[in-house]
Amino acid sequence: MNNIPQNEPDRQNYYRNELSGFIQKQEQLLNRKLTCHIATFGCQMNARDSEKLLGILKAAGFQETEEETAADLVVMNTCTVRDNANKRIYGRLGVLKSFRKSNQHMRIAMCGCMMQEPSVIEKIKKSYPYVDLIFGTHNIYKLAELLFTMYSEDRQVIEILKQADRIVEDLPVERKYPFKSGVNIMFGCDNFCSYCIVPYVRGRERSRKSEEILCEIRKLADSGVREIMLLGQNVNSYGKGLDEKIDFAGLLKETAKIDGIERIRFMTSHPKDLSDDLITVMEENEKVCLHLHLPLQSGSSRILKLMNRKYDKEQYLALTEKIRSRMPSIAITTDIIVGFPTETKEDVDETLDVIRKVRFDNAFTFIYSKRTGTPAANMEQVDEAFVKEQFDRVLQLVQETSKEMTGRFVGETVKVLAEEVNEQDPSLLTGRMEQNFVVHFPGDPSMIGQILSVKLLSCKGFYYIGEPV
Ligand code: 5AD
Ligand code: SF4
């Protein structure tokens, strides 16, 4: 046992081999493949983490299956940003109980943001003791080691790290799409918006070295990736704390130099850190998609202050005006929270005013969810029925505005990345414009992964019908 490497990624490569040996033995015994299923909740960050988890599982010998209830290993990669995310996860766990009982080979693993909350771990231990493996957001790279321990010692394994001990590079990844990929540029968040649990479950902000990021993107380009999405909770503060002198605009510029990459997206931008340099890079660089996801959260300066967002209504309006005037065809999308503590009808009127002025191309609206441990949880909460009313007012305006905004490109010929066969009509393909709008158009599967010229014939609310030209 003392020849186990101490350094990463060698240690995980060692455990992947060990796990692989175990899986092969099991397969011989059962005379079939061992299957795995990953259920992913939450954001792009979690989606990317799941690709890493699947990469490790497949490299160890698991075969992916769509059927969660029949899988030998079910991994639930959880989200805890709002309480309804948690509820859904407990619901799924309840459903799995009887399947875990009737299939003696089934193992259930849980990971992701929700697992970083001590109260969740207590609840699982007490009410869902049949969960076999629990790990958090900081040790997904250790999946092979944790699984091997679980199998070889035939026991429940729980390992949660409070903080990331390192960023482990060069582990296997299984991408969902061959032609597009997310790339983490930073982890964690230091903003401490008063409603948000993310800084507590994803830890302090850490940027990856630019050379590691660019090297990963070059490899992705070589393997056929055309579009990348640079991922971070707050990409605009990329580079802080690194020894090298680089910021997000600089990283984008370097990324755009990579041959083979044709489209670059990024997510998420915090309005307080969005620099003029970034606007210039977006303006000057064709590869950088004209789409900015710029969470507003609230249009009321009073609420924004309580939220600790560090900008006010006027600053947000000035910023978006500048962006639209310099890049008129850009799509600006946003997140809005309704029902934050102490929010009044007048505060919501301010939010509606911003929606009217900015004319968001799309907006995700959320009802405020109280997260234990965040400062807002101790503020005066708002009556539920009142919040529902206010939410409906916001939702209605958001839908009207985004419908109008989406329609503005009808008649134009635009570039569309063909992504998949249309789910309803297999003679159509579904793709996305650089503004992230969805387009359905006639085509065959061989065109998937290509960037095509498509004429937009009509707009059906939130998507277009087009034809290749
Ligand atoms: N309640 C409701 N929405 C929230 N978000 C984050 N935390 C909460 C919360 N406690 C929303 C924000 C963020 C998006 C990812 O989720 O709008 O931008
Ligand atoms: Fe993503 Fe936040 Fe949900 Fe974690 S808690 S999955 S970071 S949205």
If you had to describe this structure to a student in words, what would you say it looks like?
This protein is of the alpha/beta class and about 475 residues long. About 35% of the residues lie in helices and about 20% in strands. The chain contains 13 helices and 19 strands. It has helices at about 10-30, 45-60, 85-100, 120-125, 145-150, 200, 210-220, 250-255, 275-285, 300-305, 315-325, 345-360, 385-405, and strands at about 35-40, 65, 75-80, 105-110, 135, 155-160, 180-185, 185, 205, 225-230, 265, 290-295, 330-340, 360-365, 415-420, 430-435, 440, 450-460, 465-469. Helix 11 runs parallel beside helix 12 and helix 12 runs parallel beside helix 13. The longest helix is centred in the C-terminal third of the chain and has 23 residues, at about 385-405. The chain starts with 9 loop residues before the first helix and ends with a strand. Bound molecules: 5'-deoxyadenosine (5AD) and iron/sulfur cluster. 5'-deoxyadenosine binds near residues 81 and 369. Iron/sulfur cluster binds near residues 45, 201 and 202.
